[in-house]
Amino acid sequence: MSHHRAIAGVFAVHGAVAGSLATRVPWIQDHLALDPRTLGLALLCPPIGAVLGMPLAGRLAHRLGGRAATRLLLALWCAGLALPALSPAPAWLFVAFLGYGMAAGTCDVTMNAQAVVLERHLRRSIMSGLHGMWGVGSLVGGGAGTLAAQAGVDARLHLAGAALVLLVAGAAVGRDLLPGDRPRAAIPGGDGKSSGPRFALPSGILVVMGIVGFCATFAEGASANWAAVYLTEVTGAGPGPAAAGYTIFMLCMAGTRLVGDRVVRRVGPVTAVRAGGVLAVAGGAVVVASRAPLAGMAGFAVMGVGVAVVMPLVIAAAGRTGSTPGAGIAGVASITYLSGLTAPAATGWIAGAVSYPVAFAVITAVVLPVILLAPALREPASPLREPAPAHPEKATVHPAPAPALSEPAPVLPEKAPAPGEGTREPEPGPGCQRPEIRSARRA
């Protein structure tokens, strides 16, 4: 159980880093006097850095081992939290965000690979709950950042202090991680170096898994970025209800992930993803049709429940399918992270060109492939569910192993021989001739 707590702590620390920085972006904008266009370009750098870094994560895990790579990248991710606020000019901010994104993406790959290794060890689904812990960490980090901003704390002090605290926390929880993605043995007769792939690009079934993750993440990213705006512009919601729409969406998604593993263990990943896709489509339809704040918030809540377990299960399936957990996850994540680049911009472009309801109708249509392609997540012999045998009374009973030849067990007679009856010597070991039965009877 300590391994489970360790990886849950890693996910929570990773989420806390993201939540902490998100609350201080307005301070960075004011400090560097950035216009909205420049800030928008700067905020594109983290997902770009993540996409660039993810193919290298499998190689790093291959060389160092999964546990060591996760601890190193989590430390870099925590330390990178302080860099954006320390940037003296916009150009340095771009560089800081790129490095921040690379650390985020590579650590994302290795920690999810660790989760896949632990799932195999425990033989049950845990991925959804771990992603829920990421959401909890993000909410905690965001809450602390909100309090710091409200108190007027300089973001350089706040983020540097948060980075230090999270560094210590990450080092503490990382000690109990299971070893995973161990370095492979050197090629016989070679130069003594391992021969792992330098890059992990998706192919075959991993591409299909990546499409499922892309579609779910597209709906997630669009809803998170545009829920408040949609409720304001379409339903006439005030600032409070509009902000509540975003909060409800995130809480529903995080809460569903925390309990989602129970559903997965009962019905399996394919059924869980299909059901989630149906709920997300239904929620999107309610959002498109809503013209009142409460109806719109209900639609976003259902969408949050629907998309919650899809991405965790895609990551788990990719980790089981790739040559190593890190390689499979890196390939799929390289596709799904593109949603972070395209979803907000595409939603805004469609809304500006046509309308917000049409934009969310398109988002709802994007979710449909999740339902159709869910069988790609099926595992041929899934260890996550072990049904009981149909006829337990007919279960095969395996005999106990024979004793070792070096210590033969004594052969006891079933009953004492009667006077005048013959006795039989113990059975000889392999390779010996069978002795004749000695007769005690005299002529």
From TrEMBL:
<keyword id="KW-1133">Transmembrane helix</keyword>
<feature type="transmembrane region" description="Helical">
    <location>
        <begin position="356"/>
        <end position="377"/>
    </location>
</feature>
<feature type="transmembrane region" description="Helical">
    <location>
        <begin position="132"/>
        <end position="153"/>
    </location>
</feature>
<dbReference type="InterPro" id="IPR036259">
    <property type="entry name" value="MFS_trans_sf"/>
</dbReference>
<feature type="transmembrane region" description="Helical">
    <location>
        <begin position="199"/>
        <end position="219"/>
    </location>
</feature>
<feature type="transmembrane region" description="Helical">
    <location>
        <begin position="69"/>
        <end position="86"/>
    </location>
</feature>
<feature type="compositionally biased region" description="Low complexity">
    <location>
        <begin position="403"/>
        <end position="414"/>
    </location>
</feature>
<feature type="transmembrane region" description="Helical">
    <location>
        <begin position="295"/>
        <end position="317"/>
    </location>
</feature>
<feature type="transmembrane region" description="Helical">
    <location>
        <begin position="159"/>
        <end position="178"/>
    </location>
</feature>
<dbReference type="Pfam" id="PF07690">
    <property type="entry name" value="MFS_1"/>
</dbReference>
<feature type="region of interest" description="Disordered">
    <location>
        <begin position="382"/>
        <end position="443"/>
    </location>
</feature>
<feature type="transmembrane region" description="Helical">
    <location>
        <begin position="271"/>
        <end position="289"/>
    </location>
</feature>
<dbReference type="GO" id="GO:0022857">
    <property type="term" value="F:transmembrane transporter activity"/>
</dbReference>
<dbReference type="InterPro" id="IPR051788">
    <property type="entry name" value="MFS_Transporter"/>
</dbReference>
<protein>
    <submittedName>
        <fullName>MFS transporter</fullName>
    </submittedName>
</protein>
<feature type="transmembrane region" description="Helical">
    <location>
        <begin position="329"/>
        <end position="350"/>
    </location>
</feature>
<feature type="transmembrane region" description="Helical">
    <location>
        <begin position="239"/>
        <end position="259"/>
    </location>
</feature>
<dbReference type="InterPro" id="IPR011701">
    <property type="entry name" value="MFS"/>
</dbReference>
<dbReference type="GO" id="GO:0016020">
    <property type="term" value="C:membrane"/>
</dbReference>
<keyword id="KW-0472">Membrane</keyword>
<feature type="transmembrane region" description="Helical">
    <location>
        <begin position="38"/>
        <end position="57"/>
    </location>
</feature>
<keyword id="KW-0812">Transmembrane</keyword>
